[in-house]
């Protein structure tokens, strides 16, 4: 069994305060004997005021939140999936970038969110991630983590099962889905989508989430989840901030896949034909 931790946060508009909250969560996860901590999407800054937020954006090399998390990971010998940060990249764009950091504080992998969320909601909320963010281009997996081979996704990616299939076919053991789901879509789809992706892939899914009313006025759904390959929810953190723990058994993957070997039965599908 491997013990993991999730940080369910209410990230605000001050990167320094967010960095301290993350460092405290790393210390708490280490104190709880977790082998690895998972944090939500946009763990370093959550601010929909673009002018104010732009003053806090930095390149990866200069990002103070990333630096603080690397130092805390090194101090506590804790592996960390920093769900994502907004980092400046070339061309004046921003990447929604996740980081896997090992117990020595080294960055072992990076993943830029592939699928960008552009939508006008009935609530009046409007999101245009593509106006600011530069999309990633490919799946990323990380060998040698405490949870085995780790596949990386971010939030809206959960609606695209082909990405999860690609990660499963690359022999991942666990897929991480850090998120900042809206309340309306969270209530309708969060549990359903994450359980479906775990079942389809025959893998563990870990989804650390943002929660509550944030300083910038938005509200997020919470309910950070750990789901096993059978679709059983091992942890649901509800709507409170904090660090939660779960035990995962890697042997469960082979057990479930022996019962339903769907990955072995996949066949190439020809182009759809309308008759």
Oligomer: single chain
Assign the CATH class: Alpha Beta
Structural class: alpha/beta
User: Percent of residues in helical segments?
Assistant: 25-40%
Q: State the helix count.
A: 6
The strand count comes to: 17
Distance between the termini: 52 Å
CATH superfamily: Carbon-nitrogen hydrolase
- The total tally of domains equals 1
Query: What Rg, in angstroms, do the CA atoms define?
Result: 18 Å
Order of helices and strands: EHEHEHEEEEEEEHEHEEEEEEH
CATH fold name: Nitrilase/N-carbamoyl-D-aminoacid amidohydrolase
Write the topology of this structure.
Layout lengths: L1 E7 L6 H17 L4 E3 L11 H5 L3 E2 L4 H13 L2 E10 L5 E8 L5 E6 L5 E3 L5 E3 L11 E6 L2 E5 L8 H9 L4 E3 L6 H19 L2 E4 L3 E3 L5 E3 L3 E3 L5 E4 L5 E7 L2 H9 L16
Parallel strand pairs: 1-2, 2-4, 3-4, 10-11, 11-12
Antiparallel strand pairs: 1-17, 4-5, 5-6, 7-8, 9-10, 12-15, 13-14, 15-16
Helix pairs in contact: 1-3
């Amino acid at each position: 069994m491997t013990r993991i931790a999730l940080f369910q946060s209410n990230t605000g508009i001050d990167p320094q305060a967010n960095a301290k909250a993350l460092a405290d969560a790393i210390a708490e996860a280490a104190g709880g004997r977790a082998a690895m901590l998972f944090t939500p999407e946009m763990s370093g800054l959550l601010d929909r005021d673009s002018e104010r937020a732009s003053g806090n954006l930095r390149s990866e090399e200069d990002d103070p939140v990333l630096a603080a998390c690397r130092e805390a990971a090194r101090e506590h010998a804790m592996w960390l999936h920093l769900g994502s940060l907004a980092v400046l990249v070339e061309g004046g764009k921003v990447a929604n970038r996740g980081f896997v950091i090992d117990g020595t504080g080294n960055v072992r992998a990076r993943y830029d969110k592939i699928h960008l969320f552009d939508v006008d909601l009935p609530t009046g909320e409007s999101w245009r991630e593509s106006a600011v963010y530069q999309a990633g281009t490919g799946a990323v997996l990380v060998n040698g983590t405490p949870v085995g081979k780790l596949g990386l996704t971010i939030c809206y990616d959960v609606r695209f099962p082909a990405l999860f299939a690609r990660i499963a076919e690359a022999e991942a053991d666990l897929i991480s889905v850090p998120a900042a789901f809206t309340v309306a879509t969270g209530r309708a789809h969060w549990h359903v989508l994450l359980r479906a992706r775990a079942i389809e892939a025959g893998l563990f899914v870990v989804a650390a989430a943002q929660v509550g009313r944030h300083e910038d006025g938005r509200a997020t759904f919470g309910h950070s989840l750990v789901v096993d390959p059978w679709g059983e929810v091992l942890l649901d953190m509800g709507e409170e901030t904090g660090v939660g723990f779960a035990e995962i058994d890697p042997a469960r993957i082979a057990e479930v896949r022996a019962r339903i070997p769907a990955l072995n039965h996949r066949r190439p599908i020809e182009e759809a034909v309308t008759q």
